[in-house]
Amino acid sequence: MKSRGPYRRHSTQFKLQLCQDIRGGVIGRRDAQRMYSVSANLIQLWLTQFDRGELNDEEAEASVIAEYEARIAALERKVGQLTMELDLAKKRMARPACKRLFDGISVCANVSGLGAMIVPDQDGAYARTDPHKHVGV
């Protein structure tokens, strides 16, 4: 048998039809293996489930619904997380660029989120100081 590549999922309807055809004598197991590129072990598993009555449409629908609900819940969590991140980014952008603390002193935010102070110098003119720049003592 040749390589089949990645895993495949077969619908319950396909499994039911194949099992009915094999049990009804329409097709043999070996022919089914070749025609549909399905392993003998997988066919045997499906036939066992079919004989026990475990292979039916209602269970398949319940399984699919459970998978969809899990996927929906994961997507809802992701949407909530992204919404919170967007709200936080909007709040950061809405802040004023400079905030006046008291007479003559303002703090301005820069891209890094750290501030620079604007203070009056000895002559009364305003000068910008960088809080991260160390001034000699």
List keywords for this structure.
single chain; 137 residues; 15% strand; alpha+beta; 4 strands; rod-shaped
Strand content: 5-15%
> What is the helix content?
40-55%
Number of helices: 4
Could you give a short account of the major beta sheet? 4 strands, antiparallel
| Average of the residue pLDDT scores | 77
- Large-scale geometry: rod-shaped
Low-confidence stretches: none
Along the chain, the helix and strand elements come as HHHHEEEE
Count of distinct strands: 4
Q: Gap between N and C termini, in Å? A: 83 Å
Query: Which strands sit side by side, in order, in the main sheet?
Result: 1-2-3-4
Provide the structure class. Answer: alpha+beta
Give the radius of gyration.
35 Å
Question: Topology, pairings included?
Answer:
Elements: H1 12-23, H2 29-36, H3 40-52, H4 57-94, E1 98-102, E2 105-109, E3 115-120, E4 126-129
Antiparallel strand pairs: 1-2, 2-3, 3-4
Helix pairs in contact: 1-3
